[in-house]
Amino acid sequence: MKKIFDFLAWPVAFGLMAALAFLLFSPSVRPLLNAQSAGASYGQNARHSYAEAVSRAAPAVVNIFTQRKVPKQRHPLIDDPLFRHFFNNANVPQQERLQSSLGSGVIMNPDGYVLTNHHVINGADQIVVLLNDGREAQARVIGTDPDTDLAVLKINLDNLHAIALGDPSAARVGDVVLAIGNPFGVGQTVTQGIISAVGRYGLGINTFENYLQTDAAINPGNSGGALVDADGNLIGINTAILDKTGFSVGISFAVPIDMALRTLKDIAEHGHVVRGWIGVEAQAVSPQLARNLGVSADIGVIVTGVYKDSPAHQVGIRAGDIITHLNGIALGDGRKGVQFIEQSRPGDSITLRIQRGLQVAEVQLTMAAQPSN
């Protein structure tokens, strides 16, 4: 075998050299060596670049830095009578320290209204907003909505770049999205992913949930930042990740911008969110509960509690009742009901179909204003 390879070596080597010379010096072939491969493009003309979308959206995304005063941890023996005399300053007031945190936000209009997450600024004594162009300003809180984890800030600066709005209801699973924010405080960062799911509900993150789910990397510091479509239009406010380590593993959630805009409008006009309330606590009917009750798992929601003197209490709704329909629409797993309540107003009249054991009845009630607590 060795001899055969020795014999073949020279013809093969000669053939390779000849082919290389042909490629290098043949006029008809040389241009192909310098040309970009078909279908590939770079820079401004890049077919698969999202640089234009980023340039449209990024100037409207801000970094948010907060500080709050928190008590310093006292020595565990400082209040013990047996050891108190060892501490010369045992009678001094509780000392405080500054705790810093960071997040992101989105400039919604040229007047300086900024959307972010409630948890980003909750309890903050000082809020500083840093713009993409390097300017910074103190921000004041106009209002918050813990039920959707949203907050509205106001900054007083001129020539603000407001973000363009998209339509989250048109988002489809598989659509490309970009997350823009300030992860870990490293500065404005853009990550790319797709819409993994729409209408995520029942995660236990907030009271009202209708999330866009994405695999775009979202990490601590991204909260309150922008989720934009491939054209740079805002479709969501990045809010949460689902991971026990606290770091992104491709399951992230954003509040759809149509929900966020309702919060922004109410807070700008009233200082708080105006939302209807019927006065019940309810949960989806789990498969196990459905088997125990002998009903379908997607029949609706089961009432687990009724607030005294609430609209539901006044029309006789009780714990254990199953609400199957709202204004003639089947509730299914309850997501539709949550969406309806989130968009409702005090004074709205609604009709509920209630199943209690083998009995079915319809009741009409007028929604009250959601209590502040």
Class from secondary-structure proportions:
alpha+beta
Count of the separate structural domains: 4
Query: Level of helix content?
Result: 10-25%
Strand content: 25-35%
Low-confidence stretches: 1-43
> What's the multimeric state?
single chain
CATH topology of the largest domain: Thrombin, subunit H
CATH superfamily of the largest domain: Trypsin-like serine proteases
What is the CATH domain class of the largest domain? Mainly Beta
Please report the total strand number as a whole number: 21
Distance between the termini: 88 Å
- The strand order across the widest sheet is 5-4-1-2-3-7-6
- pLDDT averaged over residues: 81
Cα Rg: 30 Å
Task: Tell me what the structure shows.
The chain has 373 residues and is α+β, with helices and mostly antiparallel strands. The chain has four domains: 33 residues; 101 residues, Beta Barrel (Thrombin, subunit H); 103 residues, Trypsin-like serine proteases (Thrombin, subunit H, Beta Barrel), CATH 2.40.10; 94 residues, Roll (Pdz3 Domain), CATH 2.30.42.10. It is built from eight helices and 21 strands. The longest helix has 24 residues. It is globular. The N terminus is likely disordered. One of its GO terms (biological process) is proteolysis. It comes from Simiduia aestuariiviva. InterPro entries: PDZ, PDZ_6, PDZ_sf, Peptidase_S1_PA, Peptidase_S1C.
Write the layout of secondary structure elements.
Elements: H1 2-25, H2 30-34, H3 51-57, E1 61-71, E2 96-107, E3 113-116, H4 118-121, E4 126-130, E5 136-138, E6 140-145, E7 150-154, E8 176-181, E9 189-200, E10 211-214, E11 226-229, E12 234-241, E13 252-256, H5 257-270, E14 276-277, E15 280-284, H6 287-293, E16 301-306, H7 311-314, E17 322-326, E18 329-330, H8 335-343, E19 349-356, E20 359-366, E21 368-369
Antiparallel strand pairs: 1-2, 1-4, 2-3, 3-7, 4-5, 6-7, 8-9, 8-11, 9-10, 10-13, 11-12, 12-13, 14-21, 15-16, 16-17, 17-18, 17-19, 19-20
